[in-house]
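Sharing a chain and its predicted structure for anyone who wants a worked example. Both blocks are below, sequence first, tokens second.
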Amino acid sequence: PDPEIHPDIARRHAAIVATGRSDFPNQINNVLAFPGVFRGALDAGARRITEGMKLAAAEAILSVVGDELAVDKIVPSPLDPRVAPAVAEAVAAAAHAKGVTT
């Protein structure tokens, strides 16, 4: 996509820049959360996706970055094979904790 503000220009004004573009670091894309969110919800038999489940997914994504966290790496690659399983496990655990399972 063509951003409203090009990442190179944004970088002049921000310490950390993220974009939806794959040709820049910190690509923010919903593929980081899916299919892990749905896998976790299905595994848990969740009747709905709660805010807690979404937060658990975000924390799981961060956990995959771990010690590699840096200005140009605030999220893992969408191709990292650890992402979907980590998100699924966290979402299922959050669903069970909140009692939204069948």
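Comments welcome. Residues 2 and 21 are 8 Å apart (CA to CA).
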